[in-house]
Each structure stands twice: as structure tokens, then as C-alpha cells.
Batch of 2 targets.
Target 1
Amino acid sequence: MSHHDERTFVMAKPDAVQRGLIGEIIQRLEERGLKLVGAKFMQIDEELAHEHYGEHEGKPFFEGLVEFITSGPVMAMVWEGADATRQVRQMMGETDPADAQPGTIRGDLGLDLGHNVIHGSDHEDEGANEREIDLFFDDEELVDYERADAVWVYEDE
Ligand code: IDP
């Protein structure tokens, strides 16, 4: 894989779906030049919620988090591009939308820590992107293709 091919897991959370923000989130990532390589509109069950958020098990907010993430459909996605995991995290902003800078997805679209619109793999957690992609997607659900504008997004493409 070239260095433009890092993949990261992104999810429009139930609040984003209910508020009609799927398109807004996809648009921001698309316009940045990131490439959508997988997408699944789905309902997360208890088991998947516990696996996905396993690191938070035992914390006071864990049960509420599981309840929220299973409360309605989500849009699970895989996005690809140079430094994709860290770049998406920067676009998301701080975990608490109250601390997220304007211009970020959470800073523009959210107000509450428990309803913070979007999930993206943690770039500081080595391999989190691949683990989360594997948890939500089978290999054959991810698509290999070139975006027509890649030569304009990347100088060395
Ligand atoms: P992240 O989503 O920015 O990676 P994490 O620390 O991994 O942040 O937390 C996962 C999710 O758990 C957050 O996105 C948020 O929805 C929820 N969460 C984290 N901390 C709290 C809290 O203190 N109270 C309520 N919900 C929280």
C-alpha cells in the first residue's frame, strides 16, 4: 500500500443519523480528499457495542454509552487517505463538543459529550483503526478503486 492508503474507521453515531447529519459528515470527509472505501447503515447490538467500547467497560459512563450507541441506526464507514486516522481525528475535534474548536465536526455540530455525533479510530492507539475496521467489516465489503481527483489531491500521486 502507498502512504496514501491508510484506512480508518468512522461512524456517524445515532444522534447524527436522527439529526440528518450523515450527508454533512460524509461531505466534509469527501471534500478533504479522503476516499470512502466501505459503508454500512446498520443497527449496533449489545454484543458489538461491548466489543467496540470494551476499553471503557467499568467506567461510570459505560452503560449509558452502550445504551446510546444501540439506540438507533448508525452509519459505519471506512475512509482511506494519507495519515487518515490522525486527519479524521483532527477534523472531529475534542471528544467533548463543548471543548471542540469551531470548524471541527463536533465543534460545529454538537454541544454534549454523550451525544458527540461522530466516532473515529484513535490515532494514538496503535492498530485501533485496523481492529475497528475488522470488527465492523468483512474484507469483501471494502472496495479498491482510485478517486479520479487523486492526482489533484496528492502532489506525488
Ligand atoms: P473519542 O470518541 O473521542 O475517542 P473516548 O474517550 O474513546 O473518546 O470515549 C468514547 C465515547 O464515550 C465518547 O465519544 C463519548 O461519546 C463517550 N464518553 C467519553 N467520556 C464520557 C464521559 O465522561 N461521559 C459520558 N460519555 C463519555
Target 2
Amino acid sequence: MDWFNNEDCSAVPVTKRLVGCILVVPVNENILLIPCNGPNTILRIYGRVLSDARQKTLRNASRNTGDNMESGRLKIEWARQYMPVLSRIREQFAKEQPFAGIRIGMALHVEAKTAVLVETLVAGGAEVAITGCNPLSTQDDVSQALNSVRHVRSYAKRGATVEEYYAGINHVLDSRPQITIDDGMDLIHHLHTARRELLDSVIGGCEETTTGVHRLRAMAAAGKLEFPVIAVNDTPMKRHFDNVHGTGESALSAIMITTNVLIAGKNVVIAGYGFCGKGLSQKMKGLGAQVIVTEIDPRTALQAHMDGHRVMTMEKAASVGDVFITTTGNTSVITEQHFRRMKDGAICSNAGHFNVEVDVKWLEENAGEITRRDGIDTYRINDRHIHVLAQGRLVNLATPKGMGHPIEVMDLSFALQALCARYIVRYGRSLSPAVHEVPTNLDEEVAREKLAALGLSIDSLTADQIAYMQSWEIGT
Ligand code: NAD
Ligand code: RBV
């Protein structure tokens, strides 16, 4: 990039775009992507050509919590270009108008990729009300930008108190949604408990994550679920990509960018070797970490062993680990007994949906001293220091620079959400009030669209092969 000097820069028209820490600069017919270290670098490059107001926009665009609409819009525009599957669905929806007259209530992580999903639903004729599904994962500038889109109300706010969080959920429910799209089931829970008067108008819902699906299944088993919900999380096109690669890359990058510590050579303890744990272990190993897995399922523990990881109890791992990441969807995975055994400087984080995996409450109540940094709280226990990232909330979204899953992965998850929402409008009234699987044809449609977007072709079965696969007579 050495040819890109200040002279070139001053010649660049002021239509260039800044998104996060990447500068997108049109030079002649080409687009240049320039990674920047932060707002100072950016403003130094642009210092000669930008007005004060534009500089302020750029400063905000480089933060998760930017507080203006322009930076939110730029983030959404950035995400949109890497979401080809959703883009195809949006074109289809714009023609078909499957959501004409339909109100959709959503509680998801409100950031740029989610905004592209919202735009897709609106293109299909929906009225959307949205709020966050975690007090720390909202990007305020994106929430503001969404709020300025016609047919959308966004109530999400980063750093919401519990009261503000439920106020957001109540606002969404005030819109009397006919379809719910949840991540973690807080919206459906509130609907079935505090706002039961709205249940009759709901056709059905979609659930994004493993923990939400667990809760829904428990609710259905208790006979309490009153409308059909599609378990978007459980379908292959979601969890083989989002949970595995999405969590793997985004949790890893959030930990690295928050702490700036080296991963190579570290003992990284991963609690839970499910979809998320497998992805994280693979990515950590790729960077040279010594991966240690803790599990409660004997079969899954054996998988971890044969995948080349060390397997031990958390009690044992506690004294060996340098970095800990919980991905169990369970509660109380790292607690007092483990903190007491940890090395000085151990880093604890959680990638599961709720902040119950690492017992931060115990640390808050028992630490001799607490030091708070941006995204890192340090607790002194006896003579040792234990660092907790993002208050034990999901590390890939709740750390100050956590961007959530990579865009291409959310393209798949949100394509599924869009198609499942349309499925609910079409068929929801005839579905039982239970947890339903994503129809296979929709899962395959998303896979096909993604392959087409990548320019990849695959074989199809010949008539011979179909007959062979269906026969039982042909053997030795
Ligand atoms: P999963 O069911 O595939 O895996 C969970 C694993 O944890 C299982 O193998 C289970 O045996 C194990 N486990 C349960 N209790 C344990 C304990 N006490 N100690 C050790 N292991 C234990 O679930 P998943 O799809 O990997 O999701 C895990 C969590 O991550 C859920 O809360 C889910 O909602 C969340 N999630 C987060 C993100 C993100 O963006 N951070 C993405 C996807 C899923
Ligand atoms: N998730 N969303 C993002 N919008 O950036 N990143 C992760 C995003 C979802 C993911 O699908 C997972 O199942 C859920 O968040 C956990 O809350």
C-alpha cells in the first residue's frame, strides 16, 4: 500500500466510506479496502479533506456504540454487500409481498446483519418492531438507523438495565405482533407470562439459538407453549455454520481484540464440546493453542479426545488454563471452587447465550478488589487476579469491539429466519402449538443459494443411483 500517500488521498473524492475499521475508497474504477488502527489513523489520512462534521461521523463509525444514524447506516450498507442469499430473498419478497399487512415482533442482537434481515422482512411488506435480546449486544447507531427506516421501530439500547430491557420487549409486544422472532426466548416468555392478552393474535414464531430452543422444548413439554415455533437453530444450515464457524471465529476474535494476548501456546479451556465448542476448539487449535475440553456427555468427551484435545474435569482444568470459554448453554460451569484454583491472570469468558455460565456474581461479592477496564473486569481473589470479559455475557457480541458472527454466516442464519417467517404466515395456522423443525426444502434452498452465490456446482443423482439407493435387493 506504499503508493497510497497523502497526495493520492487529497485527490480522493469525499464520497469514500468508512465502516468499522476498514476504509472503502473509490480510486478511479477500483475500490480499495484499507484496514485502519482506529479513528486517529483514519482522521490523519483524511485530515486534509474532511469537515468537522464528517470527522465526527467517522469517529462514531469506528465504535460499536456510535451514537449517530449515519454510522449505523454505513455499517448496514457494509453488511448488506456480503449477504447474497438474503439479497436474493429480498428481491423475491419485494415481488411476492408475503408479509403484506403482517406485524413482526423481534428480539435479536441489534447490529448491522440483523438490520439487513429487518430490511428484508420490510421489503416483503412487514411492519417490524425490534428490540435487543441481550443488554450488552446492541449497537446503538444501528438501532438508530433502523428506527429511521419506514415500517420499523427499534427499541434496542446498549447497556440496558433489566427494566429497560423488558421495557423494550414490552414496546415490541405493544405492536401486537403476529409473528415473533426470538433469540433466547425472552420475547415468547414475556408474551406467555406478562402479556397473555396478546397471545390470540400470534400465528407463530421462530427461535434463533440453542438455549431458546431448550427453553421452548421445556415449555412445550410442560404444556405451556400456545403457538407453533420453528427451531431455526436446530437445522443443519444454521448450526453447522453459525454455531460452529460463527462462534468459533467471532468469540476468538473478540477475545483477542479485547485482551491483546497471544493465543499461540496458551492452555485454552473450552467448556462444552457441542456445536459452538467444536468450532472454538478448532479455531483455537489452528492458532496454536493447547485446547482442553470439559464435558458432561461421555460420547462428546470422547469425540474431543479423538479430535486431539485434552479432556479433563473443570476442577482439574481450572489450575491449568490460561483462557477459559464456556459454551454449554448450562448454568454454574465456572464457580468459586474453580476460581480458587486458577492461575494469577487467568482470563474467563462465556460464549453461551446467557450470563449464567461463569459465576460473576460470586466474584463481585467476594473479590478483595475490582478493577474495571473496557470489556474486562479484574477480580482479586486472595493474591491472584482473575479477569472476566464482558461481564460474563456472550463475548463475541458484548465486548466493546465484539461484532458478532461474521457476515456471511449470518447471511445463512437470517435467510433461514426470513424463509421460516414466510412459512409461518403461509402454514402457521395449521401447525400445532409445539416446537417444529425447519422444513428440509427451506434448509436446502438456503444451501443452494449460497453455493450459487459462491459459483460452486455439485453433482446430482443419476436415475441409476436413485434406484440403487432405494433398493434392498442388490448386495454381494
Ligand atoms: P450444544 O448443545 O451443541 O452443546 C453444548 C455442550 O455442552 C453439550 O455437548 C453438552 O454436553 C455440554 N455441557 C452441558 N453442560 C455442561 C457442563 N456443565 N460442563 C461441560 N459441558 C457441558 O449447544 P451449542 O449449539 O453449542 O450452544 C451452546 C450455547 O451457545 C447455547 O447457550 C447457545 O444458545 C449459545 N450460542 C451462542 C452463540 C454466540 O453467538 N455466542 C452462537 C450459537 C449458540
Ligand atoms: N448471533 N447473532 C449474531 N447478529 O452478529 N452473532 C451471533 C449477530 C446469534 C447466533 O445465531 C446465536 O445462535 C445467538 O446469537 C446467541 O444469542
